[in-house]
Amino acid sequence: MAVLNILRYPDPRLHRVAEPVQVVDERIRQLVRDMAETMYEAPGIGLAATQVDVHLRVIVLDVSESRDALRVFINPEIVASSEDTKVYEEGCLSVPGIYDEVERPDRVTVRALDEHGQPFTLEADGLLAVCVQHEIDHLNGRVFVQYLSRLKQSRIRNRLLKAERNVA
Ligand code: QAP
Ligand code: CO
């Protein structure tokens, strides 16, 4: 197991579009274990492979209070979304210290493969629905700040670049 390095906005690698997983093999299961360890250590509730600079369609998330309900999504696809939307204050391990409101469909149906390559369908609402949509966005090269105004995006970019300089 290993804690992986998390890319930080505005790293251009966060905007790469991830490739589908061809075969769910031991290499993918090792990636899933490392991503889960990285998410729990952070701590966070969701992590996409893009955030650890692996451009494959793999997501881990755990929205439980008890931190013992890991969910794995390989090649996830949103097959249905509700008409009604909800606004939620989102954050991101790649955008530390920044939280802002994003409006998304309230409920989504997701199809994916699990870590054994078995297909499943999940009907998600609440925080799970927000999180799975946020993580699928990462696989498509989209970071939640891109839903905010240009002004907010440039403030966030400048704040994080400044923070990066201060640690170097
Ligand atoms: C995505 O985000 C998410 O700024 C997962 O300093 C977030 O795990 C989906 C985190 C909210 C839905 C709602 C953020 C940790 C963790 C920070 C995370 C930070 C430390 C974010
Ligand atoms: Co994120």
Structural commentary:
A hairpin with a 5-residue loop joins strand 6 and strand 7 (119-124). Helix content is 29%, strand content 25%. With 168 residues, the chain is α+β, with helices and mostly antiparallel strands. The chain has helices at residues 26-41, 126-139, 150-167, and strands spanning 46-48, 58-61, 71-81, 85-90, 100-105, 108-113, 119-124. It contains 3 helices and 7 strands, in the order αβββββββαα. Bound molecules: 2-phenylethyl (2E)-3-(3,4-dihydroxyphenyl)prop-2-enoate and cobalt (II) ion.
Write the layout of secondary structure elements.
Elements: H1 26-41, E1 46-48, E2 58-61, E3 71-81, E4 85-90, E5 100-105, E6 108-113, E7 119-124, H2 126-139, H3 150-167
Antiparallel strand pairs: 1-2, 2-3, 3-6, 4-5, 6-7
Main features:
168 residues; alpha+beta; five-stranded antiparallel sheet; two-stranded antiparallel ribbon; binds 2-phenylethyl (2E)-3-(3,4-dihydroxyphenyl)prop-2-enoate; binds cobalt (II) ion
Please state the CA-atom Rg, rounded to the nearest Å. Answer: 15 Å
Which parts are unreliable, with pLDDT below 50 for 5 consecutive residues or more? none
Spatial shape? globular
Instruction: Report strand order across the widest sheet.
Output: 1-2-3-6-7
Query: SSE order, as H and E?
Result: HEEEEEEEHH
Oligomer: single chain
Task: Output the structural class.
Answer: alpha+beta
Number of helices: 3
Bound heterogens, unique: 2-phenylethyl (2E)-3-(3,4-dihydroxyphenyl)prop-2-enoate, cobalt (II) ion
Q: Helix fraction?
A: 25-40%
